[in-house]
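This part of the workshop introduces the protein records we will be handling. An example says more than a description, so a record of this kind follows:
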Amino acid sequence: QIYRTQANRSWCKERGIRLSGPPLGRPKQDKTLRAEQKRQAREDEKRRVAIEGKFGQAKRRFSLSRVMPKLAETAQCAIAITFLVLNLERWLRQLLWCLFYGLGIDRRDSGWLTACSSIAGAIFTLMAGGLLATEKSAARLETHHFASASGA
């Protein structure tokens, strides 16, 4: 917990940012207060685990770990597209689940989650590839246009 220094804590407090974890100093003697702090720390940990899991999924399945553009704006665009596709896949999986559930397909017997994930992953991998290809071809057209305009 190297980031929980007194200076960082006061900076966060000025801006209304709540840091999770035990406060500095001796623990309070009030058991209900300690229990409340423990409960809050557990809730914070649950949220962090879910968020870090999504970052791991984005790195593993959607090539977030291989974003290496030269410009900051391009990097932001690639990262935004990755998380857009990640969210769209989740929404499509939920939609397919509703469809399968509405048709009466039993999710325990049919491997519905695997099917939904595979279908959604394939669709959005194709979409992301199309978006990136479109972005690259647009950049090529701009470069070609400027090169031909300056050469004429």
In short: The longest helix spans residues 112-151.
